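A reminder from the course coordinator: this example appears on the midterm review sheet, so study it carefully.

Given structure:
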Protein backbone atom coordinates (compact mmCIF):
# COMPACT_ATOMS: atom_id res chain seq x y z
CA UNK A 1 0.00 0.00 0.00
CA UNK A 2 1.51 3.33 -1.07
CA UNK A 3 1.68 6.26 1.29
CA UNK A 4 -1.21 8.02 -0.43
CA UNK A 5 -3.26 4.87 0.09
CA UNK A 6 -2.33 4.92 3.78
CA UNK A 7 -3.70 8.45 4.02
CA UNK A 8 -6.82 7.44 2.10
CA UNK A 9 -7.34 4.52 4.47
CA UNK A 10 -6.69 6.77 7.47
CA UNK A 11 -9.25 9.34 6.34
CA UNK A 12 -11.77 6.57 5.69
CA UNK A 13 -11.39 5.36 9.26
CA UNK A 14 -11.38 8.92 10.57
CA UNK A 15 -14.78 9.45 8.92
CA UNK A 16 -16.06 6.17 10.38
CA UNK A 17 -14.78 7.12 13.83
CA UNK A 18 -16.40 10.57 13.74
CA UNK A 19 -19.67 9.08 12.49
CA UNK A 20 -19.69 6.58 15.36
CA UNK A 21 -18.67 9.21 17.91
CA UNK A 22 -21.27 11.83 17.07
CA UNK A 23 -23.91 9.23 16.25
CA UNK A 24 -23.62 7.71 19.71
CA UNK A 25 -23.41 11.14 21.33
CA UNK A 26 -26.67 12.15 19.66
CA UNK A 27 -28.41 8.82 20.32
CA UNK A 28 -27.82 9.06 24.07
CA UNK A 29 -29.94 12.23 24.18
CA UNK A 30 -32.95 10.98 22.19
CA UNK A 31 -34.95 10.06 25.30
CA UNK A 32 -34.57 10.46 29.03
CA UNK A 33 -34.62 6.69 29.45
CA UNK A 34 -31.61 6.23 27.19
CA UNK A 35 -29.76 9.14 28.80
CA UNK A 36 -30.21 7.86 32.35
CA UNK A 37 -29.43 4.29 31.29
CA UNK A 38 -26.10 5.41 29.81
CA UNK A 39 -25.10 8.02 32.37
CA UNK A 40 -27.05 7.04 35.46
CA UNK A 41 -25.50 3.60 35.75
CA UNK A 42 -22.43 2.62 37.78
CA UNK A 43 -23.50 4.72 40.75
CA UNK A 44 -23.16 7.99 38.89
CA UNK A 45 -19.55 7.30 37.91
CA UNK A 46 -20.31 6.56 34.26
CA UNK A 47 -18.29 9.46 32.84
CA UNK A 48 -15.26 8.48 34.93
CA UNK A 49 -15.50 4.86 33.81
CA UNK A 50 -15.79 5.87 30.16
CA UNK A 51 -12.82 8.22 30.53
CA UNK A 52 -10.66 5.52 32.12
CA UNK A 53 -11.64 3.06 29.38
CA UNK A 54 -10.67 5.67 26.76
CA UNK A 55 -7.24 6.11 28.33
CA UNK A 56 -6.67 2.34 28.48
CA UNK A 57 -7.60 1.84 24.83
CA UNK A 58 -5.52 4.85 23.77
CA UNK A 59 -2.48 3.40 25.54
CA UNK A 60 -3.00 -0.03 24.01
CA UNK A 61 -3.36 1.42 20.51
CA UNK A 62 -0.31 3.62 20.93
CA UNK A 63 1.97 1.01 22.50
CA UNK A 64 0.82 -2.25 20.88
CA UNK A 65 -0.29 -1.20 17.39
CA UNK A 66 2.83 -2.68 15.74
CA UNK A 67 2.11 -6.16 17.15
CA UNK A 68 -1.67 -6.52 17.02
CA UNK A 69 -3.82 -8.01 14.30
CA UNK A 70 -5.61 -5.55 11.97
CA UNK A 71 -9.03 -6.71 13.21
CA UNK A 72 -7.99 -6.06 16.82
CA UNK A 73 -6.75 -2.58 15.91
CA UNK A 74 -10.02 -1.78 14.15
CA UNK A 75 -12.13 -3.04 17.06
CA UNK A 76 -10.13 -0.97 19.55
CA UNK A 77 -10.36 2.12 17.35
CA UNK A 78 -14.12 1.75 16.95
CA UNK A 79 -14.42 1.17 20.70
CA UNK A 80 -12.44 4.33 21.40
CA UNK A 81 -14.65 6.36 19.05
CA UNK A 82 -17.77 4.97 20.75
CA UNK A 83 -16.45 5.81 24.22
CA UNK A 84 -15.61 9.32 23.06
CA UNK A 85 -19.20 9.65 21.87
CA UNK A 86 -20.40 8.62 25.32
CA UNK A 87 -18.07 11.17 26.92
CA UNK A 88 -19.56 13.90 24.69
CA UNK A 89 -23.12 12.79 25.41
CA UNK A 90 -24.23 16.02 26.99
CA UNK A 91 -23.32 18.42 24.19
CA UNK A 92 -26.62 17.93 22.35
CA UNK A 93 -28.46 18.91 25.51
CA UNK A 94 -26.22 21.85 26.43
CA UNK A 95 -25.66 23.51 23.03
CA UNK A 96 -28.05 24.50 20.26
CA UNK A 97 -28.08 22.43 17.07
CA UNK A 98 -27.11 25.47 14.99
CA UNK A 99 -24.04 26.25 17.11
CA UNK A 100 -22.97 22.57 17.07
CA UNK A 101 -23.24 22.56 13.28
CA UNK A 102 -21.33 25.85 13.03
CA UNK A 103 -18.51 24.65 15.31
CA UNK A 104 -18.29 21.32 13.47
CA UNK A 105 -17.97 23.20 10.17
CA UNK A 106 -15.24 25.49 11.55
CA UNK A 107 -13.44 22.45 12.94
CA UNK A 108 -13.59 20.69 9.57
CA UNK A 109 -12.26 23.78 7.78
CA UNK A 110 -9.37 24.21 10.21
CA UNK A 111 -8.62 20.49 10.13
CA UNK A 112 -8.68 20.36 6.32
CA UNK A 113 -6.51 23.47 5.98
CA UNK A 114 -3.75 22.17 8.22
CA UNK A 115 -3.99 18.68 6.73
CA UNK A 116 -3.22 20.25 3.32
CA UNK A 117 -0.37 22.21 4.88
CA UNK A 118 1.01 19.03 6.40
CA UNK A 119 0.86 17.22 3.06
CA UNK A 120 2.35 19.99 0.92
CA UNK A 121 4.83 21.85 3.12
CA UNK A 122 8.55 21.35 2.61
CA UNK A 123 9.26 22.24 6.24
CA UNK A 124 10.36 19.28 8.36
CA UNK A 125 7.64 19.16 11.01
CA UNK A 126 9.26 16.26 12.87
CA UNK A 127 11.34 18.86 14.71
CA UNK A 128 8.12 20.22 16.21
CA UNK A 129 7.36 17.05 18.17
CA UNK A 130 9.11 17.97 21.42
CA UNK A 131 7.68 21.50 21.43
CA UNK A 132 4.15 20.27 20.74
CA UNK A 133 4.42 17.60 23.42
CA UNK A 134 5.71 20.09 26.03
CA UNK A 135 2.96 22.56 25.08
CA UNK A 136 0.31 19.85 25.40
CA UNK A 137 1.67 18.76 28.78
CA UNK A 138 1.61 22.38 30.00
CA UNK A 139 -1.99 22.74 28.80
CA UNK A 140 -3.06 19.60 30.69
CA UNK A 141 -1.41 20.81 33.91
CA UNK A 142 -2.96 24.28 33.63
CA UNK A 143 -6.41 22.82 32.90
CA UNK A 144 -6.17 20.69 36.03
CA UNK A 145 -5.18 23.78 38.01
CA UNK A 146 -8.07 25.71 36.49
CA UNK A 147 -10.53 23.08 37.69
CA UNK A 148 -9.85 24.41 41.18
CA UNK A 149 -9.41 28.15 40.54
CA UNK A 150 -12.12 28.44 37.83
CA UNK A 151 -10.53 31.43 36.10
CA UNK A 152 -12.57 32.32 33.00
CA UNK A 153 -9.74 34.31 31.41
CA UNK A 154 -7.32 31.41 31.81
CA UNK A 155 -9.96 29.10 30.33
CA UNK A 156 -10.23 31.26 27.19
CA UNK A 157 -6.44 31.46 26.85
CA UNK A 158 -6.11 27.69 27.24
CA UNK A 159 -8.80 27.10 24.61
CA UNK A 160 -7.01 29.35 22.10
CA UNK A 161 -3.58 27.85 22.80
CA UNK A 162 -4.99 24.31 22.59
CA UNK A 163 -6.58 25.09 19.22
CA UNK A 164 -3.23 26.34 17.90
CA UNK A 165 -1.41 23.28 19.26
CA UNK A 166 -3.84 20.79 17.71
CA UNK A 167 -3.85 22.63 14.38
CA UNK A 168 -0.09 22.10 14.39
CA UNK A 169 -0.61 18.47 15.40
CA UNK A 170 -2.86 17.92 12.35
CA UNK A 171 -0.09 19.09 10.02
CA UNK A 172 2.49 17.09 11.97
CA UNK A 173 0.44 13.86 11.91
CA UNK A 174 -0.23 14.12 8.18
CA UNK A 175 3.45 14.63 7.40
CA UNK A 176 4.34 11.83 9.81
CA UNK A 177 2.02 9.45 7.92
CA UNK A 178 3.68 10.38 4.63
CA UNK A 179 7.31 10.22 5.78
CA UNK A 180 7.25 7.33 8.26
CA UNK A 181 6.58 3.66 7.87
CA UNK A 182 7.33 2.25 11.33
CA UNK A 183 4.38 -0.18 11.23
CA UNK A 184 4.92 -3.10 8.85
CA UNK A 185 1.21 -3.85 8.56
CA UNK A 186 -0.20 -1.07 6.37
CA UNK A 187 -3.75 -1.59 7.63
CA UNK A 188 -2.56 -0.97 11.16
CA UNK A 189 -0.63 2.06 9.97
CA UNK A 190 -3.85 3.48 8.53
CA UNK A 191 -5.68 2.84 11.81
CA UNK A 192 -2.87 4.44 13.82
CA UNK A 193 -2.91 7.59 11.67
CA UNK A 194 -6.73 7.70 11.82
CA UNK A 195 -6.55 7.45 15.61
CA UNK A 196 -4.11 10.36 15.85
CA UNK A 197 -6.20 12.49 13.48
CA UNK A 198 -9.36 11.57 15.39
CA UNK A 199 -7.77 12.90 18.59
CA UNK A 200 -6.79 16.11 16.77
CA UNK A 201 -10.28 16.65 15.39
CA UNK A 202 -12.12 15.96 18.65
CA UNK A 203 -9.83 18.23 20.68
CA UNK A 204 -10.23 21.03 18.14
CA UNK A 205 -14.00 20.57 18.19
CA UNK A 206 -14.25 20.62 22.00
CA UNK A 207 -12.15 23.78 22.38
CA UNK A 208 -13.94 25.60 19.57
CA UNK A 209 -17.25 24.59 21.14
CA UNK A 210 -16.17 26.13 24.45
CA UNK A 211 -15.35 29.38 22.67
CA UNK A 212 -18.19 29.65 20.17
CA UNK A 213 -20.88 27.22 21.31
CA UNK A 214 -24.25 28.76 22.13
CA UNK A 215 -26.02 27.22 25.12
CA UNK A 216 -29.68 26.25 24.99
CA UNK A 217 -32.09 28.50 26.88
CA UNK A 218 -33.64 25.62 28.83
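Designed residues:
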Amino acid sequence: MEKNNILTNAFKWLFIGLLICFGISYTTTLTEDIFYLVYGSFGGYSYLIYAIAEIVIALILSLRITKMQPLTAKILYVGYAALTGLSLGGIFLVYTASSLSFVFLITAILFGTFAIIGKTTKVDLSKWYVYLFVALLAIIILEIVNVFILNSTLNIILCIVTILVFCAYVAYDIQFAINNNFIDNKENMGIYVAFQLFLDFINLFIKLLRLFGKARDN
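Residues 152-179 form the longest helix (28 residues). The mean pLDDT is 88.
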